[in-house]
Amino acid sequence: MPISAGIYNQIPAALRVPGVYIEFDDRLAGNSAFQGRLLVMGQRLATGERNALELERITNTEQAERYYGRGSMLAEMLRHSLNAQPYLETWALPLDDVESASGGVESTGKIALAGSASAAGAMVLYIAGYRVRIGVAVGDTGAIIAQALVDAINADTQLPVTAAVNATVTSEVDITCRWAGETGNDIDIRFSALGEDRIAGVTPTITDMTGGASNPDLVDAIAALGPEQYNWIACPYTDTANLTALKDELDDRFGPMRQIGGRAFAAFRGTHGETGTFGGNHNSPHLSVMGTGKAISPTWLWCAVNAAVAGQALAIDPARPLQTLQLPLILGPKEADRFTDTERNLLLYDGIATFKVANDGTVSIERQVTTFQETDSGVPSDSYLDINVAETLERIRYDQRARILQRFPRHKLAEDADADNFGAGQPIVTPNVAKAELLSLYRDFLSRGWAQDYEGYAESLDAAIDTQNPGRLNVIDSPKLVGQYRIHAMQTQFRK
Question: What domains are there in the chain, each with its CATH number?
Answer without folding.
Answer: 5-30+408-481 (no CATH), 37-96+216-390 (3.40.50), 101-210 (3.90.1160.10)
